[in-house]
Amino acid sequence: MDLRVLRYFLTVVREQSVSGAAEALHLTQPTLSRQLKELEEEFGAQLFIRGNRSQKITLTEKGMLLRRRAEELIALADTTREEMLLRDAEIGGDLKIGGGESAGMRLVAKAASELKVLYPGIRLHLFSGNAADVKERLESGLLDFGVFIGPYSLEAYHTLRLSETDSWGLLVREDSPLAEKSAIAPELLAGIPLIVSRQELAVHSLGEWVGVAPEKLNIVATYNLLFNASLLVEAGLGHALCLGGIVNTAGTPLRYVPLERSAELPLSLAWKKYQKLTKPAEVFLLKMRELCNGA
Fold first, then answer.
1. Is-above-0.70 flag for pTM?
2. Helices 18-25 and 3-15, interaxial angle, to 10°?
């Protein structure tokens, strides 16, 4: 049995169609169909009941047995590989990660800190930028991983959903009437001067939440890094739309106030599908999965 083909088989089971599995695996449908036919010939049994194009495939009794055994074999193979990697004390080299200012970077920091104890030779390089900047660097091979905020299009990447989430709020001066609010309602933002992240997500999220077109908002400045934006807020230029928990306002003339009914934004770690990970990147990914699964 070829583990690679068993992974193909499990993908077909998950997608419930050969075409969907072929797309997920980035294979042509004829190639995948041929692999499945050879698998059935190897076991001398029909594994699938195939309907017409509009119907989902179902497993035969032998197919259900193979699914259970394939899941066990793949899990054992993956566990063995992880154990071999994690016991290699000689792992070292550069680990390059990009992302915006987000709660997700705390998880990255925790994983990097724990890895440094196991593998002192790993050197972490962080790149701060918006989603477009990070995606461009991922594509060019300048980053191993990127952290993305919200429903960003990541079909061309492997992804890991992080256990952290983000939500929007305003950074305001403590002498602003808004600083006294426990949460800011949409109608309170109409017309007030706003300082907004250059990332398109921030502008459109705010426009949708307030219920007005983004171009009708009173945006007086944009920013890339929140620390610089906080200086503009402190100087009285306006109020900064930002994600919570990034700026520590203790001992400053600033306050962070969450937006009322602000939806939580999912965070994803992404890496290229066809790029072989370095050893530092492999153990980092294992550690991130461990942290996200609460292990």
1. no
2. 120
